[in-house]
Amino acid sequence: MIKTTPDKLPKSEPIQWGLDYINESLEFLMDSEIEQDYKLEIIFSSGKNLAHHYQSLLKKEAMLYKSTLIADNWEAGKLMALRLLVKATPCPAQSYIHPVDKLMFYYIYNLKYLSKFFTSINLINCRNLIPKSFIREVLEIAEKNGLNLDCLKSNGYPLLICSLPYEEKQPGCYFHSFHTAVLFANSHNETVKKHLILHELGHALFNLSNNNKSSNKLFNALLALLKKYHPYSKVISVKPFQHRYMEEVFADSLATYFLSDQEWEERTEGERQEKKDEWENNQHGKKPIPPDLEKAIKLYLENLKT
Ligand SMILES: [Zn+2]
């Protein structure tokens, strides 16, 4: 039976709670003695319970800013675990469209995928957490530089940004299927932290634009330019890897674009001159990104507004 229910979450370490929930759910699903109808009944009621706890915690702990929801520390861990599990769990409506075997297969697949991610997190508490107030300031920088944050909704869901109190080698990630960005604690300076947050925002935008046909023309033009400036190496010749590579280049270029004015202001006169010389040699002009690329990003962002 699944003993690790959401009402135990307030007093638990959220990642460990998630792992226990997943392991017990998998054991229950694999039990051949239990009838499939009963399994389905339990899956649906568990999903409903998870969603209820997720919604009430969201109201209490998350900061809503335009179409983003921001959380930090333990609450971020709890919200992340609940959101990923809610989205991984099939709901009754899906059983009218898909055969039960298919639902079960994907549910087990999702649980194993999340188990792998949760297991990989190093659960040593770290003080270098990125606070939600800082994340909001960074979102405002993106906004000032032309990003309409209301474009960050996916099927009506705002983008959830969770800043966890754990330190990882990879400082952040974005889960496309769950429309959730996860940030890890780190000791980088403020500019790097800003870049990391905007990079994850770039991943969210890349995936949304890929699904949104109306903005495809300018998005494709931007990708073509990015390919010109960042050609694939011979190693990345397989299509899915090329796509992944373009997503990284896109996310990085967008973060650089959003921060270019601010980075410039923060530099000393000597650093500015040094940078100018470097750009002149690269024929990039005064900005850290080439002017035609800058124009393409601007047009792409403007088009997102309509
Ligand atoms: Zn990335």
Q: Your description of this structure?
A:
The chain is an alpha/beta fold and 306 residues long. Among the domains are: 6-61 and 77-120, no CATH class; 212-306, no CATH class. The chain has helices at residues 14-30, 36-61, 73-88, 92-97, 100-120, 132-144, 190-211, 216-229, 239-266, 269-282, 291-304; strands at residues 63-65, 68-72, 159-167, 172-175, 180-185. The chain has a five-stranded mixed β-sheet with strand order 1-2-3-5-4, sandwiched between helices. Helix 1 packs parallel to helix 3 (73-88), helix 1 (14-30) runs antiparallel to helix 5 (100-120) and helix 7 (190-211) packs across helix 9 (239-266). The longest helix is centred in the C-terminal third of the chain and has 28 residues, at 239-266. The relative contact order is 0.09. The chain binds zinc ion. The site of zinc ion has 4 residues, from helix 7 and helix 9.
